[in-house]
Amino acid sequence: MTLNSVPDAPQPGGLATLPLFESPVASPIQLRFGTATPAVPSTVPASQLTTARRAVQETVHAALTSSDDLDWALIREMRSKAADRLTEAQLAAAKAGESFDERQAGGDIVAELLQEHASDVLHSGIGQAMSVQEQHATVQAVIDALFGLGRISPLLRQTDVENIEAIGHDNVVLEDATGELRRGPMIAASDAELIADLQFLASRHGRPFSEAVPWLDLELDQDGSRLAATAWVTPRPALQIRRHRLTNIDLNTLVASKTVSPVLASFMTASVRAGKSWVIGGFPSAGKTTLARALCAAFGSWEKVGTFETERELHLDKLDNHARVIPWEARPGSGEVTADGRRPGEITLRDLLKPSFRYNLDRYVVGEVRGDEILEMIEAMISGRGTISTTHARSARDILSKLVTCALKSGPNISETYAEKAIAQHVDLMVYIKRDQSPLAPGEENFAHRSRFVTEVVSVGWSPEGPNFTDIFSPGPDGRAVPDILPDHLLDLAEHGFDIDGFNQGGGR
User: Fold this and answer.
1) CATH classification of the domain holding 155
2) pLDDT per residue as tens digits for the range 433-446
3) In terms of residue numbers, what domain contains 449?
4) What pLDDT, in 10s, does the model give residues 227-273?
5) Which of 147, 172, 190 marks a domain boundary?
6) Of 145, 142, 313, whose CA–CA distance to 220 is shortest?
7) Is residue 256, in this structure, part of any structural domain at all?
8) N or C end of the chain: smaller count of CB under 10 Å?
9) Is-above-0.90 flag for pTM?
10) Would you list the DSSP string of 475-490?
């Protein structure tokens, strides 16, 4: 089964009609979705009603974000039963030729299970009846476990959390947008349970996660975040979730955040409009994808764009300023590696790029170049009107070395000289983006300030002597990119809106 989206809570209808949810005010789930009118006497003043609503919402929010008191064994049992019943319902609907709303059905099934549990407690006398807040927190937890990430889901609802990392079920660290680190709650009862939860999540996305395939990379339906997990090849399961706070952005947004200067933004916009090909380099979490998304915002709104990613992060197809986007995503495959070095069902970026040339794309955007897909990228640079891609590198000039290394993975028929020449001739501009963190104070382990900014932009070309570079923007006193040298072959960027006067006034020679 494939989920198109993950609900924060079950759909109203099934849960709201249960006797155990009856209350002088609307159920918290109803209030949250805004789908019901509070069942209160008309004589209750509006101010008291607002206060009551706020009190209920705050109480439930506290219950949802504090998981220590929940019965997680019961929640896992309910998730298992709900998954089985959901599969049966979906198969029955398919057999009858009926439409099937998985979210609505899931909410109804969880309501049934909670009603059954309440009935068992009532008739057996074993266990303790739940309060209304506990019922709602349990419902949310089962829904999270069924459709989302279980005990990790409440962390994704914290808007200030940008990165979630775990090395084991109880060693969890949260990073906010400023770079401050803090301890997070346990995300499972044991490492084995965490692995089981990740396997359940992988199965719902049609991805393998086992000793044969000990890594998991996917886009989360809950909010589009990127999840990476590893087990069996590490002493404890490791998990990393990277959230995308900036999606609908452009270069002006990055000017406001001081990631780029106004002159650099002008140069980038003009070069993209002129059809120049860019490669963005940097360390993990430096902001490469965000910068790529901002560069893409300079595309013409009717240009046809193809995006190629191992895990979808760009999401250009969801933005209003791109009318024609085809998002391709690689697939890891499953099972043992076959004689050709691949797993059954595996689809690589190289596999995706080959047939894309039939789609009359104007622009090619590769989320990250890691291996031999660089050869297809070179072909895309020839076929398209300016490409954008990212890669891991230590500097702008190091990008060329990294891409050459990727090209050499294609096999013995590719020489270093050929790869270097092909890349230098077709990559126009290389940019390096850096993530900088400043400690709270000398000796402090935590961080109070984090910033991301472009440090340099380099043009690359080819001569009989080999590749040649021009530092168009170089690191200034604070490390941020400042104008340096503008090559003659880029003077025509003024026709596309480049502020050459501003460049020269900023120190260009």
Assistant:
1) 3.30.450.370
2) 998 865 544 555 55
3) 262-505
4) 999 999 999 999 999 887 667 789 999 999 899 999 999 999 999 99
5) 147
6) 313
7) no
8) C
9) no
10) E-TTS-EEE----GGG
